[in-house]
Amino acid sequence: MNQTKQCTKCNEVKRVSEFNKDHRNKGSLRSYCRSCQANYNRQYTMSNIGKAHKALSKAKYNRKLAEKKYGISIKDTLKIYDIAFIQAERECIYCEQDVPRGQMTIDHVLTFAQGGTNEFSNLLPACNTCNKRKGSKPVLEFLKESCDEHVTKQVVFRLALRQRINYEEMLLKLQAPEQLQEIVSQ
Ligand SMILES: [Zn+2]
Ligand SMILES: [Zn+2]
């Protein structure tokens, strides 16, 4: 019985117990040894595409949680390249500070409870601080207390572009989001 296997990454011959099972291929082992696999996973998580994948599954997971919580169905057309596009932006939309590479977060402008969707048109790039501070506050309220008029206009303008409506229509939409009143007030 062959009790050893050569790792295709580090080329070392190791005991088979040092290889994980390959779940995509029943009965066989992964070609990378455990430590090479762990290294690879770490590098992938740190990479831009790895970060985008993580942010995408988080957004989809949170959407599912909200659907369960509110008993509604939330529109979700989010794709990996939408997330990657937002993460590649250099400036926080709210504070206009440069955000270090890989640290941009995804802000849902209207939260799910406010009738927001998990679609590109509802997402903006924000730094972690602004995103946390905004929390579940209505976006116009947050803009009023934390940002100047120029930023407010920028935000409304960008959202209007993404939703293919005009500035005034977008402003109205933000002023009167379809709140899930009875749920939010519970
Ligand atoms: Zn190895
Ligand atoms: Zn910010």
Automatic annotation (TrEMBL):
A GO molecular function held by the record: endonuclease activity
Domain of life per record: Bacteria
Domain HNH nuclease, chain residue ranges per copy: 79-132
UniProt keyword annotations, A-Z: Endonuclease, Hydrolase, Nuclease
Keyword Nuclease: yes
InterPro entries per record: HNH_5, HNH_nuc, NA-targeting_endonuclease
CDD domains given in the database record: HNHc
Keyword Nuclease: yes
UniProt name for this protein: HNH endonuclease
